[in-house]
Amino acid sequence: MTPFLSSACEWSSHVTAGISASAILGLLFWKADGLFSDSGRKLVYARIMATASRPDDPALAAELSDFLGGFYSRKVPARRFFGFLLGMSVGTMLMVLAFYIAQTPGLFCQLLSDPMASRLFFGQVIGNGIVVLLLSNYFGLLLNQLVFGVAPQFRSSTIYAVLLVEMLVKIVIFVVVTAVVYVAYAVYADAFTGSPVRALKAVAPTIRDAIAFGNLTSVYLYATIIFSLPLFIVALIRFMSTHPSVSHVMERSLFFLNFENKPVRTLAVALGILFALFSTVAYVVVGLLATMVR
Question: What residue ranges are annotated as transmembrane (predicted)?
Fold first, then answer.
């Protein structure tokens, strides 16, 4: 195979892995609108349609600037900062964890009937997952505050750079913390046959499988991605406000597809796009970092 074809195949695998992530959200949220009342769905959907039709509305810009200031400003009190960090991190992880247990054949019954398996499973979730998730989200959120400053503005073009840099930083932190945890398991728990080198070499394959939702690390990875959803939606609305043609396409898509009065389904599409983007970047970054460990 020529170098060009080899490179093309590698990149196609990256894109495929990223796109496959959006299918996971479809399964999780596509029918979730049934959990809300008719009036609630209509109210939320009307707001989404209003945003899609007028993303440049000054009132909307003011609301989104207030939202950014409430969570991504340097003036955010420590109590709110850590409350948002902990609540959002744990909440998203529990949601993805429930989906992972439900879609893994036999896992739920095994956790109920086998105390040892249950202890090992949740020990890994707490000892590995919570640590990786909190640190990744912490540094991502801290970076946002440093870049946005004391008064984040919706109309600032830096929001795109912030989102991209946040992705890269969170992915790198995720990989590094995972590697540290694996080495700690090797040294102190005799995992990976007690070899730190084997532990390090296991990081890249594990995260690659996680991108395809193939192991428990998927739970932490996708929970990390969901944490970035509010910022992604603000960036998407900002993009729509500066590109009217995109806004028109979004509005017509919501109308012609079976999305009427289905706000959660609409949110699932946005999250699916974020999943595909984030996981594609993650696949590339992990591949680059893996070459450094060989």
Answer: 12-32, 81-101, 121-147, 159-188, 219-240, 267-293
